[in-house]
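Q: Given only this backbone (231 positions), what sequence would you predict?
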């Protein structure tokens, strides 16, 4: 009974509710910012990595992108966050939330780049050849023929990556940030086990709602894009 009373207290106690909403807001800001950074960075890295140009000005960026993807995907997110917070952006007064957005955005970008690369490669080569046969340049063929088809293939995987990103942001409390998980810990600290579990359960419900809403949007977009294939 006490567990349910503590759950209710998280929503009726002004102090508890304010703490949870502050943490939820920070989680939302970091997730949204990192997702945008990851999408832009991942798209650029994927396009550069797929370039077949032998020109040195393209070979060097392509090598850098390959190293970036390998290093980021091969090291823990927590380690990357620590390096960003305590080494690269260890500047007095530098906003921690910006550091978190950059760290998670860079991490997410590496995975999104691979998803986009796989999506582009999944498009039949005949589509590219048809575009070139019509007199289109390589860039125009990629932009108007290949990428629109690739988007349909990568929407589910990118959606999954963003969902994983949202859940990964729960580690920002490790560098002293007051996100949703940290708020739940703060609300339950110093109390007995039942009181501690209650705010963590509320936090889990908030995460679940966010993930479910994002999943619904992704499926809606996927169905809308697929509906054109039936015509």
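A: Predicted residues:
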């Amino acid at each position: 009974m006490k567990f349910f009373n503590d759950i209710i207290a998280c929503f009726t106690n002004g102090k508890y509710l304010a703490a949870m909403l502050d943490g939820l807001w920070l989680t939302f800001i970091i997730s949204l910012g990192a997702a945008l950074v990851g999408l832009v960075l991942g798209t650029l890295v994927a396009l550069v990595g797929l370039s077949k140009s032998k020109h040195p000005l393209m070979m060097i960026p392509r090598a850098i992108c390959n190293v970036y993807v390998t290093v980021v995907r091969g090291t823990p997110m927590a380690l990357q966050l620590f390096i960003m917070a305590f080494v690269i952006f260890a500047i007095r007064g530098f906003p921690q939330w910006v550091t978190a957005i950059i760290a998670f955005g860079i991490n997410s970008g590496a995975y999104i780049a691979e998803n986009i690369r796989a999506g582009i490669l999944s498009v039949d080569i005949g589509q590219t050849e048809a575009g070139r046969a019509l007199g289109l340049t390589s860039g125009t063929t990629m932009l108007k023929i290949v990428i629109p088809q690739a988007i349909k293939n990568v929407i589910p995987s990118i959606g999954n990556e963003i969902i994983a990103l949202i859940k990964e942001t729960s580690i920002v409390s490790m560098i002293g940030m007051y996100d949703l998980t940290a708020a739940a810990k703060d609300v339950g600290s110093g109390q007995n086990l039942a009181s501690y579990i209650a705010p963590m359960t509320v936090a889990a419900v908030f995460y679940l709602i966010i993930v479910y809403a994002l999943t619904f949007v992704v499926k809606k977009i996927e169905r809308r894009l697929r509906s054109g294939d039936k015509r």
